[in-house]
Automatic annotation (TrEMBL):
Name of encoding gene: recC
EC code(s) of this entry: 3.1.11.5
GO biological process, one term: DNA repair
Pfam short name (any one): RecC_C
Organism of this sequence: Buchnera aphidicola subsp. Tuberolachnus salignus
Protein name: RecBCD enzyme subunit RecC
Length: 1053
């Protein structure tokens, strides 16, 4: 017997389940629930445990897997052991072996590669599984001997392959077709004694033809309770009491034509179900639409329109141009709802999309970084789940060892995982020591000469890990005083702890290299299971806590290749092939849902469309149309048979997801979609809702029926993010306590008082105000070593840091009249590039520094120091000005001129002028650039100095957005507006281009948005922040541009 219950409220359906379970006398007997959704499974467990005070007697299974297991158990006498038609991976291995044994002979398979053959097998297995579950007519046609289609060669080819596959799977003395297997199941439908006599089904995936067929047969011996979420587009099944007798009559008539037999049953004996529908009482637009959908009333052409209140905002549509603006507008909308309704909890809100993972980056940045107070809105992942993600990520990287280049930062990143670190007895504190060690000892690539050959690189003896190990081993016996020994520069590790750490790290390197050699070879399928187990045990420290997780990884791999092992697949396979074809699929192992955590719920539409929430926000509604059209499969035959509707559920899947979420919204439904201006078409489902609202409701105002959409529902389209225009819907003033982007129009400075301010701290602050704020005020220091780019470790380039240290040492040696460092020492340290390239770099840098030294040499003869004590608002600026030659400040840098160099000399120049000295200051740089600072009156100098001192105290409390990008933007405008002939529009456009080139990436600078300190304050550049950066750069940098000039070259052109 089959009972169907349907409602728009899941809790009411759960109450019915609890009432049915309470009637059971023996509570220790197990109950079977068939649920595909893991979230619903959790919810039912919690609900039943609260109501009935027991949920341990319930067993949860996937609906399709459970029904297929019943079908396979009945056909065990027909099929061979371990064979399954319904498993796609098994079909792939069977097809591969049939092609290799040349039982399937096709002309185009002879001329293609081995990898393309396997791709053909995977695609063919997908089509066959699609036929089995969605349209068995094709399989019947393949099994019919008389069938042959001259026009369609695809059908004939697939018919041959299917018959060969069935003959291979079934036993020799019992050759059964797929339709005969199903008839055999009809005759032998008796269940075991221990099996339960009732099943609870809570799934929308049940309406596939094969699943319906199995349920029809099971109804004789089992009570089936089907719980459905109401939607207008669903078709329900029902039958009468004499159903089994008529099945037997039809099976005898249509035994040859099975599918005709199946559809006859569907037409004759399916009736409307006995429905139990629950009414809705509220009168909002959302509730009235839900009521009409619930009772199958005509919503498109109603008999009479209803008057609606203006204040009703139960349905809200929003159109945007980007995903970022979608998330921003949802965030603003939810903040308004929290203000209006203080009793609203974050757990009452659901934000969903067809693929919510695509929005996670914007959600994490906008929801969590905008407000420190609202950090409770997002659920933070558990440590266990984070480690699971890290394990899977590192395991993928480690399995690709034959393709890895063994760069030093990649090797050190592996040690970030605690399970690998503990295996090699390396502590967490010791990783920073290893980073510092490699800054001194050099950067390394491949392991040895053989590894370089495989990477198609020339031999680089001073950049290999083998040379690194030799340096340390020689350093244990010889000191650095001995110099080079047999072409090896020894590295002396002074401390015993440092030697132990390097010993552990070298052991880790040797094990990685050993596994690189093992994984680069091909092996049989049987051997790959043993290799994977050994690999996991040697690299990971598997504790009792993580045994189950690693067991699942190995078990998942075994499931995917067990059919190939059973069929004695003899060809050797590489690890790259297993990863490409997803036989080692690690993404299916992790199990995580951020529901039931007390925060805002995020989930995919396919898993969360039946869950009731007070506010439901659907993002990316346009994707419901795009994803409905699947990629074309050249083997599938569905496109040729247009008359048969092969899968009702598949055609209306996204429609049902959408309308189920409409039904599950209690108070508010928020619909958002992003479409470009060129595409004028709106999503179909939103257009349908628009028609329903237009045709059913109107606003009464001065006896005129006006469209409700213009008044309440649709906000005007917001323009693109790049144009920086405001959204018309959000005209209200932003609350200062809620939004960090609320930036004041004018720079207001509050006064803070301290006793002493040292000149060193004062200058250090203005070099980088944001970094100083994090380090000194918040006392946070981020580890930047782990964010190094890969191009910095190239063996044919000189790293910027290495260049800095070499130039500094050579310049200091020339000034102090000491020995210049030798070329060979740096080359043996693997700091310079290999062979002749390193010599060219060395000579070029030496020439540049000699030129700079020759210019400085004339000026720096007599050095003086001046002690300073300056009072401003009960604060003393105290310190000494060094390197003053002939009553003139002279500074130099052995790099390109940067804003931090300029502002440090500018502040010293202001202090110098306030003391009454009247001389220009000079700043020399590497590229023959001399920047001159003009003389200022003591009054002007005091004015500017007081301004910068007060800025120091505001910058400690609140970060000042003085960035390189804003400085470059201002300097470009300032230099071009000095000229008489100019075009304003072109200059402004070019200045903004300069700003974004430095913000994103530039030849000189790596890009400010990648800076960890700036990223914490500005996760996304908005129009308000862009204006703020401009204002701050004008306020703090315009005096520098006014009183400076280049003597030879301009800096920014």
């Amino acid at each position: 017997m089959l009972d169907i219950y349907q409602s728009n409220d899941i809790k009411k359906l759960f109450k019915i389940i609890c009432n049915i379970l309470k009637k059971k006398k023996n509570i220790f007997k197990k109950e079977i629930f068939l649920i595909d959704d893991k979230i619903l499974k959790k919810w039912i467990q919690i609900y039943i445990a609260k109501k009935n005070k027991i949920s341990a007697n319930i067993q949860f299974f996937s609906c399709q897997k459970y029904l297929l297991n019943i079908l396979e158990e009945k056909n065990n006498c027909i099929l061979k052991k371990n064979f399954s038609i319904f498993n796609q991976k098994d079909l792939i291995w069977i097809l591969i072996i049939l092609i290799e044994k040349k039982k399937i002979q096709i002309n185009f398979l002879q001329n293609i590669t081995y990898e393309k053959k396997i791709q053909f097998c995977t695609l063919l297995a997908k089509t066959f599984s699609q036929y089995i579950f969605e349209d068995p007519t094709y399989i019947f046609l393949f099994e019919n001997k008389d069938y042959f289609n001259k026009k369609n060669s695809k059908k004939n080819l697939q018919k041959k392959i299917w018959n060969i596959l069935i003959n291979f799977i079934t036993k020799k003395h019992k050759k059964f077709s797929f339709s005969q297997m199903l008839q055999f199941f009809i005759k032998n439908n008796s269940l075991k004694k221990k099996s339960s006599k009732r099943i609870f089904i809570f799934s929308n995936n049940i309406y596939k033809p094969l699943n319906i067929f199995i349920l029809m047969i099971l109804q004789k011996n089992i009570f089936i309770y089907l719980f459905e979420y109401v939607s207008i587009f669903k078709k329900f099944i029902w039958y009468n009491k004499n159903f089994q007798k008529k099945i037997d009559i039809l099976s005898s008539k249509y035994s040859k034509n099975f599918l005709f037999f199946f559809w006859k049953i569907q037409k004759k004996f399916f009736k409307k179900p006995r429905k139990k529908i629950f009414d809705i009482t509220n009168k909002t637009i959302l509730k009235t639409i839900q009521k009409k959908i619930l009772y199958y009333k005509n919503t498109i052409i109603p008999k009479q329109k209803k008057i609606i209140n203006k204040i009703d905002n139960s349905i809200y549509f929003f159109h945007s141009c980007t995903k970022r603006t979608e998330v921003e507008n949802v965030f603003k909308y939810l903040l308004d709802q929290f203000k209006k309704n203080p009793f609203l909890n974050p757990s009452d809100i659901l934000i969903t999309s067809l693929h919510i993972k695509k929005y996670f980056f914007y959600i994490n940045t906008i929801f969590s970084s905008n407000l420190i107070k609202n950090s409770f809105l997002i659920y933070k992942k558990n440590k266990k789940f984070k480690t699971q993600e890290n394990i899977l990520f590192t395991l993928k990287n480690l399995l690709k060892l034959p393709l890895q280049e063994f760069k030093y930062h990649w090797v050190l990143n592996l040690l970030d995982l605690s399970l690998i670190r503990k295996k090699f007895f390396i502590k967490n504190n010791e990783i920073s020591k290893l980073y510092a060690l490699f800054e001194n000892i050099g950067k390394y690539w491949g392991f040895d000469n053989e590894h370089f050959k495989k990477m198609s690189l020339p031999n680089l003896p001073f950049h290999s890990w083998e040379y690194f190990i030799k340096r340390i081993v020689v350093g244990l016996f010889l000191n650095t005083e001995y110099g080079i020994w047999s072409k090896i520069l020894p590295y002396d590790v002074s401390t015993i702890q440092g030697r132990e750490l390097l010993g552990k790290f070298i052991n880790f390197l040797y094990i990685l290299n050993n596994w690189r050699k093992i994984l680069s070879k091909k092996y049989m399928l049987k051997n790959w299971i043993k290799i994977l187990k050994k690999f996991v045990n040697e690299i990971f420290n598997i504790t009792f806590k993580w045994k189950k997780f690693f067991y699942l990884i190995c078990q998942n791999f075994f499931k995917n290749i067990k059919m190939g092992i059973f069929l004695n697949y003899k060809k050797k396979i590489s690890i790259n092939f297993l990863l490409k074809e997803k036989f080692l699929n690690l993404s299916t192992i992790k199990n995580y849902q951020n529901f039931f955590t007390g925060t805002i719920n995020f989930g995919d539409l396919c898993t969360s469309h039946m869950l009731p929430f007070k506010i439901i926000c659907i993002l990316g509604c346009q994707k419901l149309i795009e994803n409905n059209l699947n990629k074309k499969n050249f083997l599938t035959l569905f496109q040729y048979n247009k008359n048969i509707k092969y899968d009702i559920y598949k055609n209306l899947k996204h429609r049902n997801f959408f309308f189920n979420s409409v039904m599950s919204a209690k108070n508010i439904l928020y619909l958002s979609y992003n479409i470009k201006k060129k595409l004028k078409k709106k999503p179909i489902f939103i257009e349908e809702l628009r028609k329903i609202i237009k045709n059913n409701f109107y606003i009464l105002k001065k006896e005129k029926k006006t469209s409700i959409l213009k008044k309440i529902f649709f906000s005007e389209k917001n323009t693109s993010y790049l144009q920086f225009k405001k959204n018309i819907f959000f005209k209200k003033k932003k609350d200062k306590n809620l939004n960090f982007n609320c930036l004041k129009k004018s720079i207001c400075v509050k006064k803070y008082y301290t006793n002493i301010l040292y000149i060193k701290d004062f200058i250090q602050f203005w070099k980088n105000p944001i970094k100083y704020f994090f380090k000194n005020s918040l006392k946070l220091n981020f580890n930047i070593h782990q964010k190094n780019d890969s191009h910095l470790e190239e063996p044919f380039l000189l790293n910027s840091l290495q260049k800095f240290f070499i130039n500094e040492k050579t310049l200091n040696a020339l000034i102090n009249k000491k020995k210049i460092p030798q070329f060979e020492n740096y080359q043996k340290k693997s700091v310079l590039p290999n062979s002749e390239i390193g010599k060219i770099y060395w000579k070029l840098e030496q020439k540049k520094i000699n030129k700079l030294f020759q210019k400085i040499k004339k000026k720096i003869k007599k050095e003086k120091k001046i002690k300073i004590k300056y009072l401003y608002n009960k604060t003393y600026l105290q310190g000494t000005l060094k390197n003053i030659y002939n009553t003139q400040i002279i500074r130099w840098t052995h790099t390109i001129l940067q804003p931090k160099h300029i502002i440090s000399v500018w502040l010293e120049h202001l202090i110098y002028c306030t003391m009454g000295y009247r001389k220009n200051s000079l700043l020399y740089s590497l590229k023959s650039e001399i920047l001159e600072f003009k003389i200022l009156n003591s009054e002007k100098a005091k004015k500017y100095l007081n301004q910068y001192i007060q800025g120091y105290y505001t910058g400690i409390k609140k970060p000042i957005l003085l960035l390189k990008s804003g400085i470059f933007w201002l300097e470009f405008l300032y230099s071009h507006f000095k000229k008489k002939k100019y075009n304003k529009k072109k200059i402004y456009i070019q200045a903004e281009k300069n700003f974004f080139s430095i913000w994103n990436n530039n030849i000189i600078f790596p890009g400010e948005k990648k800076d960890l300190y700036i990223e914490k304050i500005i996760p996304h550049l908005t129009s308000n922040i862009f204006k703020k950066i401009k204002k701050t750069s004008i306020y703090w940098w315009s005096p520098i541009l006014k009183y400076t000039q280049f003597i030879k070259k301009k800096l920014y052109e």
